[in-house]
Amino acid sequence: MSGVRIAMLGDSLTAGYGLRHSEALPVRLGAELAALGLSARVVNAGVSGDTTADGLRRVDRDIADDTDLCIVALGANDLMQMIAPERVRANLDAILSRLAARSIPAMVCGMRAPPWFAFYALAFDGLFRDVASRHGAAMDPFLLEGIALDPAYALADRIHPNAEGVAFMARRLAPRVAEVVSSARR
Questions:
Q1: Which domains does the chain have, with CATH numbers?
Q2: How far is CA 15 from its chain centroid?
Q3: Which helix (H) or strand (E) holds 179?
Q4: What are the pLDDT digits (tens) for 102-125?
Q5: Which residues on neighbouring strands pair with residue 41, listed in sequence order?
Q6: C-alpha dihedral over 108, 62, 174, 161, to 10 degrees?
Q7: Percent of the chain at pLDDT above 70?
Q8: CB 8 within 8 Å of CB 26
Q9: What is the dihedral of CA 36, 182, 109, 74, to 10 degrees?
């Protein structure tokens, strides 16, 4: 396959906060997809600090009509601000609806609240799968799977992934993304 255009609508985890451009998740994901034989241009539509509400405000502007897959990787800042899960769900639902109206397939990357967030975590963690399921979108349960809270994969702020953490994320995501693109093109 060639000429696939993928966009990552996200926050600092996508934008590459604290990293060189070449270390940002979209660049690393593109390289991992190429290693799998998928020629893809992965567009970085990540803005540090963005919440799902911010992503909703810019989805129509930042995601081109010729996008073959939009990876929606938002929610970390909603979690940090403890935005009501119902609001996060409504924002993600609206983002996926707007993408669907433009015939752009989507993949949702979930977030998880630390267990000490108690009842908030219970409501927050499941909403990503629920929204993806309702829209028939592909799903990655947790964008930071395997690196969250591990200092070996974190910048000095202990929040954002370092270059090694992003490389791990890209290697983990690439097979799933390639599978989703392949399915969408059939």
A1: 4-184 (3.40.50.1110)
A2: 11
A3: helix 163-184
A4: 999 999 999 999 989 999 999 999
A5: 5
A6: -80
A7: 98
A8: yes
A9: 100
pLDDT digit string (tens) for 58-102?
999 999 999 999 999 999 999 999 999 999 999 999 999 999 999
pLDDT over 70 at 147, yes or no:
yes
Band (pLDDT 50/70/90 cuts) for residue 1 is very low
- Residue type, position 109, single letter: C
Cα torsion 72, 134, 142, 186 to 10°: value is: -70
Rounded to two decimals, what is the model's pTM?
A: 0.96
If you average pLDDT over residues 178-183, what whole number do you get? 94
- Which H helix or E strand runs over 45? strand 40-46
DSSP letter for each residue of 80-142: HTT--HHHHHHHHHHHHHHHHHTT--EEEEP----GGGHHHHHHHHHHHHHHHHHHT-EEES-
Q: Give dist(CA 84, CA 151) in Å, integer.
A: 28
